[in-house]
Request: fold
Amino acid sequence: MTEQAVRTVIMVSGSGTNLQAIIDAAVPEIDIVAVVSDNPGAYGLQRAQDAGIAGVTVDYKSYENRADFDQALLETIQQIDPELIVLAGFMRILDDALVNAYTGRMLNIHPSLLPDYPGLNTYQRALDAGESHHGTTVHFVIPELDAGPAVLQYRVAITPDDTAETLAARVQQGEYQIYPLAIARVASGQLQMRDGVVLCNDEPMVQPDVIDESNASPAA
Ligand code: GRF
Reply:
């Protein structure tokens, strides 16, 4: 990508705490040109407004079928013409046409240490399975759900007292640290996806960097 701030769209469906963390981090490598939501009631739209960022709604409920919604969303994004799309709690599965139009230029954050636990309810599933650790992953988006290559991960130890709620709270603190960092690395061109592989400074990255909760800066 360019050395100028990368035109970035952030897509949200709900509370937008990750959006807030990205706004607050003031990542110099990006210019957030719009926040797009499928849900007119998303608090993330309020956060955008409070930050002086344009909010755009493509209301899922106002379309007769999935194909019409997908088309409207694609056209909306094409009109904004971002260089990077950041999914931050966008709860609809994106149409392949949109994903393929932004190969290597679309990121998501998923609350598990991918490739473990794609899909929903990851906290409870990790607890039920007796895992020692859980976490969250920033990854490039490919058409297959939660399957794109990982860019950066945050890892927390599960304690005997953890519930899905306490675990989620700790993992989400990690999300607020790693998402701005991952966005900066991709927007600067340090990390790229080519042929489904993440390159770091043009060299294949075998494993994503992992930030462990025990080493993370509390102020970050
Ligand atoms: C995040 O925890 C992320 O892992 C998942 O959706 C959640 C969105 O939360 N993809 P918020 O809207 O950023 O508060």
The chain has a mean pLDDT of 96. Helices lie at 17-25, 43-50, 66-80, 96-101, 122-128, 164-187. The chain is about 30% helix and 25% strand. Residues 12, 14-18, 88-89, 109-111, 136, 172, 175 surround 5-O-phosphono-beta-D-ribofuranosylamine (CB under 6 Å).
